[in-house]
Amino acid sequence: MSTSTDMPLPLQERYKGPDTAVMILNWNGAEMMRRFLPEVVRTTPTDIADVIVVDNGSTDNSLQVLADEFPTVKVIAFDTNYGFAEGYNRAVALVEHQYVVLLNSDVATSDGWLDGLRAEMHDNDDVAACQPKILSAEQPGMFEYAGACGGYIDRHGYPYCRGRIFGTVEADEGQYDTPADVHWASGAALMVRRKLYIEAGGLDADFFAHMEEIDLCWRLRLMGYRLRVVPSSKVYHLGGGSLPVGNPRKTYLNFRNNLLMLYKNLPHHVRGKALIVRRLLDTIAWAKSVATFHMADAGAILRAHRDFRRMKHNYDNIRDPWYNLLQGAPDILTSYYLKGKKKYSSL
Q1: 160: which strand partners?
Q2: Which of 22, 129, 180, 277 has its CA 20 to 30 A from that of 186?
Q3: What are the pLDDT digits (tens) for 213-252?
Q4: What is the mean pLDDT of residues 48-56?
Q5: In 3D, which of 77, 64, 1 has the Cα closest to residue 34?
């Protein structure tokens, strides 16, 4: 399976086979594939799923590595780097599988990792997407920051997880092994119904990176569907492969995209107040950055708000969300910083 940006190669035809496509987006990641792809191939049964690498116009030897070392892996090859969101959107549109798993290139899967996820989707038509338990590839006994054991959002729009609140990441001691409904499922390993992914509009390419999967999950929930975490399924995520914690670019994207997400998905009658509160909270964050001489982060917060004001009008014509999904959500800032509740189980 192979395609370019404009003119599909003769071999590019709609593929009909297993019901699940495990899609791994790659850009100049030949060595990352050599490290993680063997386990994905080994633990993904070919009778139920196709492993597909979506190459985003790589200029390294990624395509040659795939041809030489991973002959069973299917390839969708774009001649342009479309970025994370748009790359996946275009690739999802090219396949016909019932389910799609968006799997980061720095994720190692484990034996039986697809079983629980597929069972959840097969058995529950009202579940739009789900995620496995996500553990650290470097410290397998710890949850991984990006998704841990299922994601939530507090009343001010701050994401947190079962197993991770802000910078506090818990050890996995089986405390979250019960399947649960969640507000969002991590894009590091996200299984979603392809039809609903497309109906919801896919990942928002304007986000570029960070929180685009939370935004998608919010829209799926507004469509009336549930999201689930299935802890019996386990994967191991390296994390930090794109932008490490503390990078001003990451600070900028997190602040800007969080504001855009609130603007898009909150009902109009509560959106204004919510954004005023967030401006006050972000001002405190800016002041803390200045006081601790993290001037690059302080500048990133200011740029995030400036660009939010410019970009928000791109969403002025979207349908008014029917329900405030943050109604009744906890205040994580107060719980974490004032009450000292650092773990999800203590909330």
Answers
A1: 152
A2: 277
A3: 999 999 999 999 999 999 999 999 998 544 455 689 999 9
A4: 97
A5: 64
Contact 146, 186 (CB under 8 A): yes
Average of per-residue pLDDT across 150-161: 97
Residue found by looking up tokens 């392809």 in the block = 194
Structure tokens at 225: 């569907």
pLDDT for position 16: 57
pLDDT digits (tens, 9 = 90+) for 8-42: 333 344 445 799 999 999 999 999 999 999 999 99
Task: Return the ∠ at Cα 43 (arms to 241 and 109), rounded to 5°.
Answer: 25
Name residue, tokens 């939010």: 308
Tokens of 242: 């794109």
Token look-up 């009008």 returns 313
Within 8 A by CB and 6+ apart from 43, the residues are 109, 110, 111, 112, 113, 114
Closest to 264 in 3D by CA, of 295, 222, 232, 210? 222
Burial 29-67 (b: 16+ CB within 10 A, else e): bbebbeebbebbeebbeeeebbbbbbbbbbeeebbebbe
DSSP 19: S
User: Is residue 162 within 8 Å of 339, Cβ to Cβ?
Assistant: no
DSSP per-residue string spanning 109-176: E-TTHHHHHHHHHHH-TTEEEEEEEEEESSSTTBB-TTTTT-EEE-TTS-EEETTEETTEE-B-SSTT
Strands 180-181 and 226-237, sheet pairing: antiparallel
**Ramachandran category for residue 273: left, alpha or beta (phi over 0 → left; psi -120 to 50 → alpha):** alpha
Give Cβ neighbours of residue 115 (< 8 Å, ≥ 6 apart): 232, 233
Element of type H or E holding 23 = strand 20-26
Question: Between the CA of residue 129 and those of 21, 86, 124, 150, 196, what are the distances in Å?
Answer: 14, 19, 10, 11, 9
Token digits of residue 171: 């050890």
Whether residue 2 has pLDDT greater than 50: no
